[in-house]
Amino acid sequence: ATTMAFRWLVLALLTAPVAPLAAPYGATPRNRGTDTMTGAGPVQVDLNKYNLPIERIEEEWECHLYQTIGKSDEEGSGVRLQCKSNDVFVDTVTVKFPRQQASLGLELLELAGGRDDGLGITVVSGVVEGGPAENCDVQVGDSVCQVSVLQSRKVKESEGITDIEQIFSVPTEALGYDATVEALQTLPPLQDGQQIQLKLRRLRKRPIVTVNLQFPPSQNEPDTTIQLFAGENLRQGMLVRGVKLNDPLAKRFDTKNGGNCGAGGLCRTCAVSISIGQELLNEQRIAEKQMLQDVPRWRLACKAIVGYGMAEGEMTIRVSPNQW
Q1: Reduced to 3 states, what is the DSSP secondary structure of residue 72?
Q2: pLDDT tens for each residue of 185-215
Q3: Are 77 and 24 within 8 A, CB to CB?
Q4: pLDDT for position 253
Q5: Which residues are bridge partners to 83 per DSSP?
Q6: What's the pLDDT tens digit per position in 109-130?
Q7: Which pairs from 82-85 meet CB under 8 Å and 24+ separation?
Q8: Are 92 and 26 in contact (CB under 8 A)?
Q9: So what's the pLDDT on residue 71?
Q10: In the prediction, which pLDDT does 246 show?
């Protein structure tokens, strides 16, 4: 009965049930950034340059019910913040700062709430000047999803004195303003040596790579431009946007005959020549290097990830390089 009541209460905030968030960028199957951006590799840029303006943030936040596979409804269900648009993703940022006062030094704004169950959407509207969070990476529009108090204490053991860190955490995700304040009031009393750890949900736009495609004159195809999200596979991204990749002059590396290997990296039918923007792709692995050692500007589109490191930029690519 409790579970049914819980589900009924969140219906007004939900648009569609989704699976749990995926690491590391916190996107979901509804926001296709999950599979895309996990392929982008280690972040090599300052992601804050992709932050959204507050006007867009207010439009993008929404709540979703999630269910963790393999757990009961009571243990594995809850409400989590998501974004509405496919060109945006939810990032998770963790910051720490000394606990100098009972207040966090944050100004909060309720975007949705007023419900009896306390559910809603509350975001940071400002950071108090001179407050404990002033010099931390807390941005306007962030939503605080968890607040933790970290406290170190010394414990005497047989080997000597050991420092042990105690952590007291309060979940605050998808709560209205009043419920957020009530949750923060349950934090332990202020003591010397404490630290505050905030887990923040942050909306960012998905980095885009502009790809200028050039076709061999024999194909009578006009040059075109497509846009891919950082982390997309080049071959798949081109195919779903209607770009044909099947060079009839290419030979398989394994059999030396023709034939498409179906993105297995065994043929060169999807090979492309990178004129500009090679730095926007992931590094070649050993097998691809061996296959293309005689043509260093070529890449197997099936093994190339655009926007590697979450970088944006522009590329120029020649399709079917055997025909040039």
Answers
A1: coil
A2: 999 999 999 999 999 999 999 999 999 999 9
A3: no
A4: 62
A5: 61
A6: 999 999 999 999 999 999 999 9
A7: 82/18, 82/28, 82/30, 82/31, 83/31, 83/203, 84/15, 84/59, 84/60, 85/31, 85/60
A8: yes
A9: 59
A10: 76
Rounded CA-CA distance 30/40 in Å is 19
Tokens at 223, concatenated? 């040059």
Contacts of 69 (CB under 8 A, 6+ apart): 19, 20, 76
Tokens of residue 90, six digits:
């939810």
**pLDDT confidence of residue 239:** 93
Q: Model confidence over 8-30: pLDDT tens digits?
A: 333 333 333 333 323 233 333 33
H/E segment holding residue 315: strand 313-319
Average pLDDT, the chain: 84
CA distance 78 to 7: 9
Q: How far apart are CA 139 and CA 45, in angstroms?
A: 17
Neighbours of 46 (CB within 10 A): 9
Cβ contact 188:131 at 8 Å: no
Strand partners, 315: 211
Read off the tokens for 69.
Answer: 């596979």
Question: 3-class SS at 94?
Answer: strand
Intervals of the chain under pLDDT 70 = 1-38, 70-76, 250-263
Residue 214: its H or E element: strand 208-214
Is the peptide bond preceding residue 17 cis, with omega within 30 degrees of 0? no
- Select from 122, 128, 126 the least CA-distant residue to 140: 126
Cβ count within 10 A of residue 306: 32
Q: Which residue has the tokens 């975007």?
A: 111
What's the pLDDT at 252?
Answer: 63
Using alpha carbons, select from 224, 220, 258 the residue that is nearest to residue 238: 224
Pairing relation of β-strands 313-319 and 208-214?
parallel
Question: How far is residue 288 from each of residues 96, 135, 269, measured CA to CA in Å?
Answer: 43, 45, 13
Rounded Cα–Cα distance for residues 258 and 33 (Å): 35
